Amino acid sequence: MQFDQIIQFSLSGLSTGAIYALIGIGFSIIYNATGIINFAQGEFVMVGGLLTLSCLELLHLPILAAVPCAVAASTLVGVLFERLAIRPLRNPTPINLVIITIGGSILMRGLAMLVWGKDTHGIASFSGDDPIVIAGATILPQHLWILGVTLLIISINKFYFYHTISGKAMRACAYNRRAASLVGIDVRRMVLFSFMISSAMGAAAGIIAAPLTMVAYDVGVMLGLKGFCAAIIGGMSSGIPTVIGGLLLGVLESLGAGLISSGYKDAIAFIILLLLLFLRPQGLFGKPESERV
Amino acid sequence: MKRELLKFLAFALFMLLLPLPFRGGYLVNVLIFVGINTMLAVALNLLLGYAGQISLGHAGFFGLGAYLSAILTTKYGWNPWAALPAGAAIVGCLAGLVGFPILKLKGHYLAMATLGLGIIIYIVFNETVDLTGGPSGLSGIPNLCLGSVCFDSDFKNYYLIWVFALLTVLFSLNLANSRVGRALRAIHDSEVAARVVGVNARILKVQIFALSAVICSLAGGLYAHTMTFIAPASFGFNFSVELLTMVVIGGLGSVYGPFLGAALLTLLPEILRGANDYDIVIYGALLVLMVMFMSGGLVRGIPDLYRKVLRLKGGVDHA
C-alpha cells in the first residue's frame, strides 16, 4: 500500500470526520442539558441540506443568503420539535423518550420525502471544484470549507459555553439540573436553547457536506448514527474530545473503506461503536463514573 | 389464570376460524403476515414490555433466522424442519453471547447498541453475496412439509404460521404469570431493587434477550419457507422501528397488545392502499401521538377512553 494513498484517504476522512464531529456535538449538547439522546439529530442534517437546496433553486438566493436562511429554518424545526414533542411529554422515561425521538425522526423523514421527493439532489460546491494538491494528495475546495466552518462553529461554541451568561447557565444545567434551577436558572428555557443550538449545528453540518455527499430525504439516519458514535468516543463531551472522536471515526472509516472493503465502510463505524460501548462507555478519554441510585 | 386461559382459547378459536369463509385469497395472505408480525411483536414485548430493555435490532434476528434456514436448505440440502431449529439455536447462542456486554447498557445506550448490531447484521446480508445472494436476495427456498402435505398455499400456510403464533402468545401469557415474569417486571421497575430481593438481573436479562431472539429467528425461518424468497430489504432498521411501533401501539407489557399492534400495522398499509408513500409519515405520527396521549397502548387506552366517555355522558364520577 502506497504512502500517498494513505494520506489521500486520511485527508478525505478528516473532512467527513468534521461533519461527524459537528453532529456529535449536537447530540452531546442536548444530552448534557436534558439527558435525552435525540434520535432525530441526523434529521436536522438532512433538513439543513434540503432547505439550502430549496433556497438556492426555488428562491434563487445567493449561497451567502441561502445558508443562513436554511440554518434559521432548521433551527425553527428544532424548536417546534422540542415544543410539540419533548416538552408536553407527561411521562418522560428513557424508553418513552427514545420512542418519541424515533417517532419524530421518522415523521421528519417522511415529511421531507413528501416535500422533496425520493431523489438524491446535488448542490454546487461553494467555490468551484478545482482540486488542490497538498503533499502528493489532492483535496477539493469544499473539504477546506468543511474544515474551516467546523473550526469556526467549534470556536463560537467554546466562546458561548465559557464566556456568556446563558452558556454558563447551560453548563450548570449539565452538571446538575436541580441545583441550576435552585440558583434561578430557567431549566426549561435551557432545554429549548439546547435544541436550538444542536439543530442549527446539525443543519450547518448538512449544508457544508451537501456538495460532496449529495442530499436526500434519508441521509439523516446514517449521519446521525455516526455523529452519535463520535459523541460516544468523546464521552458525550460538547468540546474537543467529541471533535477528536469525529475525526478519528472519519479517518478510520475512510482508511477501512479504501484499504479493506468499501462495502463494509458503514459497518466499521458500528463495530467501533459497539466495542466502545462494551469496553469504555465513558468514552476514550473519560474516567468511569460510579452509578447513583 | 383460568379466566386468562378461557380468553386465550376464545382468541385461538377466533383466529383458527377466521380464514374459513375466505378459503385462501388475498386477505388470508395478509393475515399470514399478521401472524408473523405477531410472533415478532410478542418476542420484542418479552424484552421491552416485560423486562423494560429496548432493542432496535430485532429485525436483524428475524433476518438471521430467515437467512440461516434458507441457506441451510438451499445450499446444503437440509430438511426445512431441521434447518428451522438449527437456525434458531445459532441465533440463540449468538444473542446470548452478545447479550452479556450489550445488556450491561441502559436506556439510550442500549437502544444505540442494539441499533448498531442490527445494522451490522443488515450490512453482512448485503455483502456476503456468495451465501445470501446480496441485495437481490435468495430464491427457491423449499416449503415446509408434514408427511405428504406441503404448506404451499396461502390457506395451508395460514394454519402453519398461526399455530406457531398462537403458541408464542400462549407462552408469553404463561411467562407473564410465572415467577420469571414477576422477576422481569421487578427489573423493569427497578433493577437495583430487583437485585436486592435476589433476582439475578444480569443473567435473566440475557436469557430473555436470547429467548426473544430465538422467537424472532423462528418467525424468520417460517417467513423464509412460506415466502420462498427473501431479500435484505425486509430486515433493515426500518423494520426494527416498525416492530417497536407495533409493540408500543398495542400496549407494552400486555399479552394481546403486540397482536393488536401487529394487526393494525400490517392491515393499515392495505387499507391505505395508494397512499404508499405516506405510510412512513403515519408510522412516525402514530409513534409520537401514542407516547404522548396513550402511553399504555391501545389495550389500555381504549378501555380508559370508553370509561371517560361514559363518565362524561353520565355526568357522575364513580371513581
Order of helices and strands of chain A: HHHHEEHHHHHHH
Calculate the terminal CA-CA distance of chain A, rounded to whole Å: 52 Å
What's the architecture of chain A in CATH terms? Orthogonal Bundle
Provide the helix percentage of chain B.
over 70%
Beta-strand residue percentage of chain B: under 5%
Runs of chain A in which pLDDT lies below 50 for 5 or more consecutive residues are none
With helices defined by DSSP (H or I, 4 residues minimum), what is the helix count of chain B?
Answer: 14
The counted number of beta strands of chain B is 4
* Strand fraction of chain A: under 5%
Residue runs with pLDDT of under 50 for 5 or more positions of chain B: none
Computed over alpha carbons, the radius of gyration of chain A is 19 Å
Cα gyration radius of chain B (Å): 20 Å
Task: Describe the model.
- The complex is a heterodimer of chains A (293) and B (319).
- Chain A has a single domain, classed as ABC transporter involved in vitamin B12 uptake, BtuC (Orthogonal Bundle), CATH 1.10.3470.10.
- Chain A contains 11 helices and 2 strands; from the N terminus they run ααααββααααααα.
- In chain A, a hairpin with a 2-residue loop joins strand 1 and strand 2.
- In chain A, helix 5 packs antiparallel against helix 8.
- In chain A, 49% of the residues are buried.
- The mean pLDDT of chain A is 87.
- Chain B is mainly alpha-helical and 319 residues long.
- Chain B has one domain.
- Chain B is 74% helix and 3% strand.
- In chain B, strand 2 and strand 3 form a beta hairpin.
- Chain B is globular, with a radius of gyration of 20 Å.
- The mean pLDDT of chain B is 88.
- The interface between A and B is large, with 44 and 44 residues.
